[in-house]
Write a structure and sequence with these properties.
The chain is an all-alpha fold and 135 residues long. It is built from 4 helices and 2 strands, in the order H-E-E-H-H-H. It has one domain. It is globular.
Length: 135
């Protein structure tokens, strides 16, 4: 046993991460310069891997599935960026890392939520939004 649990879906995972990586560069640079978007290897792969594995199980792999894997990861990334924003703003002129503040991480999290929505619409999957329960 090789220990590589993603071996059967490696190419599909690479396609998902290529799609995500292509959306992380904006005019001002890489969004990782403005918010902490570093995650463990498991956090980077598990959500898209579940989406892809289910699609393989049901024999329905397509470009939409790759996009759905990216969408799920965008939602996770955005929620983690927003979760890390401090409750209390510290007004310190010596703050050298903009990723530790509040303004840029909020914008990056919102940007990632926007990417989830635009990707969903680009692949004509916006009907999935109707499946979410309303509170």
């Amino acid at each position: 046993m090789s220990g590589d649990i993603f071996a059967n879906i490696r190419e599909d995972l690479q396609s998902v991460h290529k799609k995500i990586k292509g959306q992380l560069t904006i005019k001002a640079g890489h969004v990782g310069s403005y918010a902490h978007i570093e995650f463990s290897p498991m956090d980077n792969f598990i959500r898209p891997a579940v989406v892809i594995s289910v699609a393989h199980f049901y024999n329905c792999m397509s470009a939409k599935v790759i996009s759905l894997g990216a969408i799920v990861q965008f939602i996770f990334m955005a929620s983690q960026v927003h979760r890390r924003i401090p409750e209390v703003t510290i007004n310190s002129k010596s703050e050298s890392d903009p990723r530790d503040g509040t303004q840029f991480p909020v914008l990056v999290g919102d940007y990632l939520y926007g990417k989830f929505f635009t990707t969903l619409c680009s692949y004509d999957m916006n009907h999935y939004l109707n499946l979410w329960p309303t509170l």
